[in-house]
Amino acid sequence: MNEERNESYSHVLKYTGVFGGVQGLNVLIGLVRNKIVAMLLGPGGMGLVSLFNTTVQLISQATNLGIAMSAVRHISECYDAGDTEHTAHYVKVVRGWCLLTALLGMLVCVVLGPFFSNATFSWGNHTLHFVLLAPAIGMLAITGGETAILKGVRKLGALALVQIVAALASLVIAIPIYYMFGQAGIVPVIVLMAFATMSATLWFSWRIFPLQLRGTRGILGEGMEMVRLGVSFTLAGIVGSGAEMFVRSYLNVMGDLEVLGLYNAGYMLTITYAGMVFSAMETDYYPRLSAVNHDVAATNLTVNRQMEVSLLIVAPMLTALIALLPILIPYLFTSEFVPVVPMAQVAALAMFFKVLTMPVAYITLARGYSMTYLMLEAAYYVAFVLLMVVGYQYWGLLGTGIAITLAHVFECLMINGYAYKKYGYRMSAAVYRYAIVLLLFGFLAYACTIFLDGIVYWLVELVAIVASALYALQNLKSSSMSNKL
User: Fold this and answer.
1) Closest-CA residue to 189 (of 136, 141, 138)
2) pTM to 2 decimals?
3) Are 45 and 182 spatial neighbours (Cβ–Cβ below 8 Å)?
4) Which of 150, 268, 322, 334 would be 445's cystine partner, CB 3.0–4.6 Å?
5) Which of 25, 107, 102, 109 is nearest to 68 (CA)?
6) What is the pLDDT averaged over residues 202-222?
7) Distance of CA 117 to the CA centre of its chain
8) pLDDT tens for residues 283-324?
9) 196: closest CA among 219, 167, 225?
10) Cα distance between residue 443 and residue 20, in whole Å
11) Where exactly are the structural domains of the chain?
């Protein structure tokens, strides 16, 4: 039993470290790209990029039928059973459905172009821009299906390489186009980046399962179970993307593109980039959790192991991020983005609660309770939108950061409370201990941003960062060596 637990902990640490490292490289590449893009486009241009990207995500989520998530479960089952022939056949089923959803997504984008133009802009006619985004939506659908195939057959190395290639391609594509065309290059960049990601994914996927056109007649009927499971994921994605789009449209209308650009920069640094560390949960943790989802004790062990490692890795980085944002934001963007520093600092606190939420939230997905997942996601996004509206009205940009953190606190309490009652989930003593200590360091770092300045600010922040890092390193070392909770 001890050997099994040690192996489990080492596995979580290994793959969280691998994908965390990959995402760290992606973040560095993204920071370089965003620095240059911010200089070329300014806050207004960054806001425009945010609006178009959010629209693409919304349409993609609304039309992909959740295949990128539900297909992983089905392919993984075939693969784990050792049924090579059935696995290859189901790959064709997934590809057939992805082609159908790609065509559907492009059609919806073209038809709803005028609606999105009126809903997201209070000036000008941007219908053509939305119509030209249609190819990106189609390519995202294909990429999602091929990514699900790679996840299902545990090709984690290939997935890591795809992420690196996509990040490098975004740097190579975006900078010269924005330099030459400015804001007019935003739509071409989005489409070309989608193409680069799709190409890299297809290259790895087709090497494992070459494209076959024979035997494809009638395969769409075989994927109905996968689609039914994916419908709730689709609806949850629509709710999430719709909420994000509403918030950005609201900020654009109530404020302006510069306000939206500032918000997007803060959100990107504190939520998007910090959240990339959780990529191991989707690629490695989710299949492992699915394999033990009917065993309460094994589920609790798997969830707590993932949460312990995630806390010890993410929390010290968040503490450092809160302290260093006054330096990072003008350095990584431009001096025009300095007003977003207070918003980004308070929003960074949200990620502490995200670490305590995501591993538990995957229990619902692993058990296939798609409607429950939908209702929990909907409840979170309703709270998110309401808090954002109230926060911006009363405290401006700072209020959006407060709203993000409060929404994540609400989600953490809701998800953990539901799992406690419904699934018998019990948080381990180690998770409680790590969470309390590391949260205290995080809140100390944030308190310094309010009450201290000058040399005293940096001295206290340095103490918080070093103490958090040493505590995390000590526990990572002792846990991996002796597996003590």
Assistant:
1) 136
2) 0.75
3) yes
4) 322
5) 102
6) 75
7) 26
8) 677 777 876 778 899 899 989 988 988 888 889 989 999 999
9) 167
10) 24
11) 2-482
**Count of beta carbons in the 10 Å neighbourhood of residue 216:** 13
Residue 5 has pLDDT above 50, yes or no: no
Q: Which residues contact 347 (CB under 8 A, 6 or more apart)?
A: 266, 267, 270, 271, 400, 401, 404, 405
At 407 the pLDDT is 97
- Residue 94 and residue 149 in contact, taking contact as beta carbons nearer than 8 Å: yes
Contact between residue 342 and residue 262 where contact means Cβ atoms under 8 Å apart:
no
Q: Which two tokens stand for residue 443?
A: 């809140």
Task: Give the 3-state DSSP-derived string for the chain, with helices as H, strands as E and coil as C.
Answer: CHHHHHHHHHHHHHHHHHHHHHHHHHHHHHHHHHHHHHHHHHHHHHHHHHHHHHHHHHHHHHHCCCHHHHHHHHHHHHHHCCCHHHHHHHHHHHHHHHHHHHHHHHHHHHHCHHHHHHHHCCCCCCHHHHHHCHHHHHHHHHHHHHHHHHHHCCCHHHHHHHHHHHHHHHHHHHHHHHHHHHHHHHHHHHHHHHHHHHHHHHHHHHHHCCCCCCCCCCHHHHCHHHHHHHHHHHHHHHHHHHHHHHHHHHHHHHCCHHHHHHHHHHHHHHHHHHHHHHHHHHHHHHHHHHHCCCCHHHHHHHHHHHHHHHHHHHHHHHHHHHHHHHHHHHHHCCHHHHHHHHHHHHHHCHHHHHHCCHHHHHHHHHCCCHHHHHHHHHHHHHHHHHHHHHHHHHHHHHHHHHHHHHHHHHHHHHHHHHHHHHCCCCCCHHHHHHHHHHHHHHHHHHHHHHHCCHHHHHHHHHHHHHHHHHHHHHHHHHHHHHCCC
pLDDT above 60 for 192: yes
Amino acid residing at 91: V
Half-sphere exposure of 83 (CA within 13 A, CB side): 11
Tell me the C-alpha to C-alpha distance, in Å, between residue 88 and each of 201, 206, 220, 228, 349. Answer: 17, 11, 15, 21, 44
Is the predicted pLDDT of residue 484 greater than 50, yes or no? no
Mean pLDDT score, 323-339: 86
Q: What percent of the chain has pLDDT over 70?
A: 85
